[in-house]
Design goal:
The structure is a homodimer of 240-residue chains.
Chain A lengths: L12 H8 L2 H10 L5 E2 H8 L3 H13 L3 E6 L2 E6 L2 H13 L10 H12 L1 E3 L2 E3 H13 L3 E2 L5 E2 L1 H9 L14 E4 L6 E4 H13 L3 E3 L6 E3 L1 H11 L11
The structure holds a DNA duplex (30 and 30 nucleotides).
DNA sequence: GGGACGCTTCGACGGGGGCCGAAGGATCGC
DNA sequence: GCGATCCTTCGGCCCCCGTCGAAGCGTCCC
């Protein structure tokens, strides 16, 4: 065993890291980054392990505080515990090495391309679309990167036009930058990023593709982005 | 083994987390958060493991990109690879559960109290002193927490008075908040936090206690904080 | 009620990884 | 040169942990 000669009450780094140090549990967390609740079976199939194995992992993650669960009948729904946890996973993911995975199957490759185009990252938009929106907002002076990332007064007004009120100052920063792992450029996260993403769903700008994190830009979304941000992007037909 | 059904080239979360998922390696990283280079033997003694064990861990951490090393004669110096890595470790540490360690020895407890008063956290100031400075800067309008943490124009001027120039906008944010694990309140990090800490050492406001992360406020430092920030704190005699 | 489904518990298996001490190479100081 | 110091390699030990399938329990639906 280990002889931990650390300060009294110091943070137990390893206890938290162990939870993410297993490939299957990491897969779970990455999947849950879409911000939705998954059932145990869905996660098991996603990661390619037996249901009993998934149960064990979920017990660890829940008791470790990374996940919260909700029982509904015979289903066990789990989701990331809070935005802080999502940020933690995003941060680690952004610094982790890339997986050298052989392309598996055609549908997997397709889904992967869809993911690269547009997806949710916990509760905000990512992928090429997320990055494009973030850069368009920057070009229009809605975001300021001079000194960390901040929302300008123009940005606040722009959000208000959309009917998005700036959430009251909470522990969570209103705007935050999140490094995109396909684009390698930052996209908008934080409370505003989440609100914007929610609005995009509500207003029908984007729709989910299948049950995963990938989303498709609708015609309405394409028009809205052109009108609101002068952003020209191709809508995607939400097949596959 | 594991059947990872993830997207091609996705982040290998587990590969990074594994590095921090061992108590000894976590101890190393926490110790290296003081921003200085440690020798392999120092770290081994700090964590209470054999030198050969430390060698193995350091090999993993270095090849994993978390640490960089430098050989000088028979010494192997290691330090955290970059500020990004330090932020990663800070982030995990801030969310990790506290260690329920029985207080070991009197000197350890003393050092622990000294650590709680004032210490370095990677390259900036932490502990009660770090938090007090951060809050005094906020009170004086040098920092703004309204919308994330930002440096005000008054803050820029105040730094200039000290001879600290705002570093050019780089990937690293100028100001960042870092949750203090003893105070449970945020202190100033980021490039400005680092510059301020460096200035505090250079100007003789603070000195190291022993070889660890703890620092002591000098008489000169006490006067400077009173003059510059109207902050009343007790200097500490750097014994122990 | 009966069957399908989702989840959990249990036992068994296998492998990986952390630990140490001994021995040896490299470097420094005298 | 000679001992002391720092580090590394190697072998051996042992425990932990991830995996599965079988069996069982609860829930849902027909």
């Amino acid at each position: 065993m280990n002889n931990h000669d650390t300060h009294v009450g110091g943070p137990d780094l390893a206890a938290l890291a162990v939870l993410l140090a297993d490939g299957t549990r990491a897969d779970f967390c990455l999947a849950l980054l879409d911000g939705r609740a998954w059932t145990a079976t869905e996660l098991a199939r996603h990661a390619g392990v037996a249901a009993s194995t998934a149960t064990g992992h979920l017990n660890l993650l829940v008791s470790g505080g990374l996940l919260t669960q909700e029982r509904q009948g015979r289903h066990r729904y789990v989701r990331l515990a809070d935005p802080d946890t999502a940020e933690l996973i995003e941060k680690i993911a952004s610094m982790a090495p890339r997986r050298a995975d052989p392309p598996r199957s055609l549908p997997a490759a397709n889904r992967s391309r869809a993911l690269a185009r547009a997806r949710t990252c916990y509760d905000h938009l990512a992928g090429a679309l997320g990055v494009a929106i973030t850069e368009a907002m920057t070009d229009r002076g809605l975001l300021d990167w001079e000194q960390g990332l901040t929302l300008t007064s123009d940005g606040t007004a722009w959000l208000a036009e959309l009917g998005i009120a700036l959430p009251p100052a909470a522990r969570r920063p209103p705007v935050r930058s999140c490094l995109d792992w396909t684009e390698r450029r930052p996209h908008l996260a934080g409370a505003v990023g989440a609100a914007l993403c929610r609005h995009a769903f509500d207003a029908g700008w984007i729709t989910r593709i299948g049950t995963n994190r990938a989303v498709a830009l609708t015609d309405a979304g394409e028009r809205a982005l052109k009108d609101r941000l002068g952003l020209a992007v191709q809508p995607q037909t939400p097949v596959s």
